[in-house]
Records
---
Amino acid sequence: MTAALCGAGTTRALSPHVPLTPDEIAADAVACVKAGASIVHIHVRDEQGNNSMATELFVEVVGKVRAAVAAAGLDVVLNLTTSGSKWPEDVRVAHLPVLMPEMCSYDPGSMNWANSYVFLNTPAFLEKLGAVCQELQIKPEIEIFDAGMLGNVEYYLKKGVLKPPCHYQFVLDVPGGMPGNIESLAYLLPKLPQGSTWSITGIGKSHVPMMLAGLAAGCDGLRVGLEDNVFLEKGVHATNAQLVERAVELGKVVGRQIATAEETRQILGLKKHR
């Protein structure tokens, strides 16, 4: 179970509960782990609440998350973002060797995000990020927004930039990407290499339908959080912990065991560095 706490663009205008400061992100991480999350996906924000890829901010946020989780006697897998195409490519990976997370995002292609800007992931960057992940033994979470990205992954597997088995995170219903429906999932799943693991999230209104579809199709994980959806139901703003709690209950309804952080490491083949 992954909790994506704030993302790059969720604002206080969209949700009063979105964590923006380092202390808020750390507190939300603890609340989500207590609720059943085994992975926390982290973006960081500057003092104005804007998305940032500054290494010093990652150091502050991750330091506080690790300290808060440890103080609560808990365990969690940290998954740090590398998204942020307006920043130089070196900046997008600079925090990885400093913080040595167990996972990081890997977006295997570019797209016209929400028909408003280019979500840019150049071939040179993807090769660099793949090399960094292999060197540091960080597991790339391969985020699939559109079908063509699977072809890119296949190419990088053949080239040795990525190593199997891969872990895929389907992020469906981003405008400009694949819609969040059963047809999309039915198209994507048969194309995953044997031995792969996969998780799923839907953006906005497709959040619950994609959780249900993923559980029905045998997903290895669910992703929830205010990065992807701000409502518990129509007109009711959710907290990150509430979204995790609901996903845990859905998993239990269909007889799925909720993995601990240590079990998640075994399922995904992660190396714990710290």
---
Amino acid sequence: MSAGYKRIQYSCYGGPDVMRIEAFQLPAPGKDEVLVQVRFAAINPIDWKLRQGRMKLITGRAFPRAMGMDFSGVVLAVGASVSRFQVGEAVFGLSRFKESGALGEAVVTKEDFLASKPDTLSFADAACLGTPGVTAWNGLIDKARLQAGQQVFINGCAGAVGEAAVQIALMSGAKVSGSCSASNVARAQALGVSTVYDYRLTDLTRLPARFDVVYDTAATMTVSTGIGLLRPGGCLLDLNPGPGKFLRGLIDRRLKLVIGTPRHEILETLASAASEARLKIRLGEVVPLDGAIQLIRELEQGRKLGGKGVVAMER
């Protein structure tokens, strides 16, 4: 057991008030696991959705439970069968979905959920890549099999997953259109979105264009609207799965549900693209661990940072 670390955790499902910064112990890493001293952790909406108990059928009822998915840091120990990393190596990646734990001073995760951090990429920037980059890749590449020359529409193209999806689509040789708020139109255009719609002023059911892939990264589009934007043979990527959508997806192959599933090959590709400045997720605000609960609370209540909320760990 390793002891003396602090992290954000909670002893029951609920709202922001259940979060605490508390001491905890970590077991030694198992055969395919890696213990990482966290340098930076990024905040994602999935963090508070898990804490609210929205996925308790998966996460269970064992408490206390940790928070946080995305991080960067330095390897402290490796399991017996780990071959890709050594103690002292700089890495980034994701914690395991059920256990979480990135919003703390140390975390144990699977070897396959990590990649080496390029020297040219800061720890803070590396911490932002995991969930947005993996989710974008799972949808566009794994599910949609995106090809060069195809037309993509990204709903929410200025959010973290949307930003990653825009950049991955462009790397794949696709042409990208999208929607976002008026304040983010210039940012989306700078990323390479060819046609940007203000979502407040645009009725997406009336768009004249049709697309090979529609990715609802904002999780605000109805299935019927998304399907209506497709070309023959196209697909709608949905980030907000539920029982009804699972059933519909079995019947209508145009609807593809995306559940973030990291693999080291994806993370290594993201690292390469980020080191070459072809992929970047914006940093919004960096706070120390003792300021993280307040920032999570504000983000959960709708505060917009214009980039990722990031927590800097200090030991």
---
Amino acid sequence: MSAPQPPPGAQIERTQLSWRRTLVSVTAVALLLARLSAVHLKGLPAAAALAAVALVWAAAVWLTHRRVRDVTTPAGRMLPALVTLILLYCAMATLLLMS
């Protein structure tokens, strides 16, 4: 048996572009969080916040790369990873704004 054929039309291209737009948004948020932590925190807390932002951003890059590469597979399996990344960003932003 051969592998299933992707759906016709531009659906795959639109999906890949939407994942890339999502990565651009995540990158912008990461840069804003990094700047916020660098301006408002000093020393070890700033380094820890920058490392956390970099780690979550790297995970988003990996997830986006994987989704763009495997666009023919259902996105439902990646939903927990995406929700986790969003929650991590929200938690980091909350901690930074409260400090």
---
Amino acid sequence: MKATATSKTAQYMALFRALETTRPKEKRLFTDNYAHLFLSGSLKIWAWLCRLSPVRTLAERIIRKKIPGAYTSGIARTRYIDDLLNDAVQHGVEQVMILGAGFDTRGFRLPSLGNVPVIEIDHPNTARFKLTKLRNKKIPSRIRFYQIDFNKQSLDQLSAMHHFDFSRPTAVIWEGVTNYLSPEAIDNTFAFIRRFKSGSCIIFTYIDKKVLETPAAYTGGEKLLQDVSALEEKWTFGFRPEELKDYLLSFDLELLEDMGAAAYRQRYMPDRSEEGYEFYRVAYARKK
């Protein structure tokens, strides 16, 4: 990410959530009344116009042509992670930590988190931009925001500074981040998560390493990697799905679910099927 900019990919995900919110209530996968706040001028106009069904259809067609599979994959994964987080709360989670929070709004929009403390951690650029856009909204006191530049500070240092509570069962959300990091940063983050109490869990996204090695094997793969690199948000890391279980076990985490975009898209929107983004995955693991 540029040193003086917010994440473009985070803004695109906010756009996808804003578009989904314009669908008829009985047909949408979720409602996010905050997503439009994070959009730039032209994108905000598009989101507003998409209240009209023909305009929304046109916008979705343009997105599908430009980034095959990204929209439906992103929307389905948002709902999937929502459901996994709701499940974690029902099973005793007492706090939520969102790493690389971007424009995530779960702390505001999920009823299941109404009494659950939420800790958001993100890069200073994106965090400041987000708080600026939320300045006219009432932010619940249970939601706390922390900023970290991973090039200058570690999660362990941040937690010591702010006295994070590792004794409470915690759900960690790590969405749309791992593909931008180094192997060392990945290891350090899972080591940090291991500090939480047994029964804690992590819900995270990752890309199949194959897309970095053979992007042409996936619909739109080559162009996508070129585009994110041009945005200075180059993808640098992926897991091999068959190796993930053993990797997580080395951090005392038991893999409960690991689902690719094709599967969660089929689960939540079988009537809106499309190709693309099959390399994107969501994993759910619990501290043993």
